[in-house]
Amino acid sequence: MKNIQMVVFAVGKEYYGIDIFCAQEIIRIPKNITKMPNMPSFIEGMLNLRDQVIPVVDLRKRFGLENTETENDSRLLVLKLEGMLLGNIVDDVSEVLSVGEESIESLCVEIAYLGNSCIKGICKVEDRLIMLLDVTKLKNEIFASVS
Amino acid sequence: MIKFSALDSCKSLAETLGHLVPGGIMFCVTEGDTIVWRFSSDSFHLDSFEVGNHVESNGVMMNAVRNKKTVSQNVPRTVYGQRLIIVAMPIIDDTDNIFGTFSVFLPKLHPVAAAFKDFAPVLAEMFDEGSVIYMTDLTQVVYRQASRKFDISSLPVGHVIQEEDVASRTIKTKKPISEEGGAEIYGFPVLETNYPLFDEDNPDEIVASLGVIIPKKTAAHLRIISGNLEDGLSAISAAIEELAAEATSIHSNEQNLNNNIKEIIGLSEEINKVSVFIKEIADETKMLGLNAAIEAARAGESGRGFGVVAEEIRKLSEQSKSTVPRIQELTDTIKAKVNDAGDMSKSSLHASQEQAAATEQVTASIEEITAMCGELNEMAKTL
């Protein structure tokens, strides 16, 4: 049976997971994020990450959460998607989990449609539920809304 | 001088007048040195002068015979048991030869002695604690009067006065003496006052002394009590001073304690700072562990072992992070306890301040009492 590894992080009270191969690195939230004009509120701005300029998205805003204060545990999770780097502000990156494929449940189409969401499944780990994000979809959603 | 022929007239005059003289009188006729006739009133009699007795050759009568003139002499009490004035007049016969003497013996009683029995009983009762009034001649006590309340049995009539006695010294110095005597003299403390009594005719000749002794029992008792009280008070004062000193040291100890407690609070804040630092390190380590896990996953099969290590590092960081709230809990407990201790020490500081104030009040009261005790002592001395 195939195991998949995922990086688990928190946004608000919920835990989300992404495929570890999409993750580039985790860093503290830099102070020098440059705001850009005429952007949706969830686009935090642009960041110079080791001479590479990358966009930063506040997932909390993107997911429609109210409290978006940057906490001490907040991190910038940098994803690499099809050669493009994308910074995501999350509340906490908690762990790297290795789970069997069988513990991932796909959402039924109705629910997925209802949320118009980028969640591709839910993973049960002990008594926790971790929402598995489809990061490509997430990226497309983000940039579709921008354009 | 008396003519022999007038002698009989003199005798009968003497016998007639003799009974009228207050205090008594005695007459003698001597022929040569022999007493040939004598008359004495009822109240006065001297055994030494019986008819047929010889008078002393250097006495007043023979003196009058030798000098052929009237001679008078004061005889002190020591000679015949009472003071006398003797006047000897020579008797001459028709041929102007000395026959003998006609002598008059007058007892001499000091007015104070005469009045003693009248005034002494009244005077003796006039003192609150009673008194003993006595009169001495030059050698012994001759009269005494004790009050009902107070008597001195060691001072009877006939008591020979000693050199150190107040009476002796009064007689010697011819001046009144008033002094307090301790219990060693009469068995209890007294105030003894003695006045010299002079001869009625010769104010330079001391003949007797009059003394008054009043007991000073109450005063002496009072003095002992006030003395004891003073001793007790000074002991209390010393104890209170010690107490005050201890209160001061308690005060400074409490202040030190308070300062130490503040330092402990400061130290637990330092611990908190350290634990915040630990949390930062743990956060950093966790991030390192996560990034290492990501790198390991990217390395594929060859990175698997490293991934396990990375996961362990992350777990360790979680563990050390979890100690931080526990440390904080502990330091909070320390702070709470220390604050409690601080409150207690403050309250005992307050109590020690109150104690110091109370001690001062007690000291002031004791000082007042001591002053009063001193007054009592002074008063006792003047009683």
Task: Put the structure in a nutshell.
The complex is a heterodimer of chains A (about 150) and B (about 375). With about 150 residues, chain A is an alpha+beta fold. Chain A is about 15% helix and about 50% strand.
Describe the structure.
The complex is a heterodimer of chains A (147) and B (383). Chain A has three helices and eleven strands, in the order βββββαββββαββα. Chain A is an alpha+beta fold. Chain A has a single domain (3-146), classed as CheA-289, Domain 4 (OB fold (Dihydrolipoamide Acetyltransferase, E2P)), CATH 2.40.50.180. Chain A is globular, with a radius of gyration of 15 Å. Helices cover 55% and strands 19% of the residues of chain B. Chain B is built from eight helices and eleven strands. Classes of the chains: A alpha+beta (147), B alpha+beta (383).
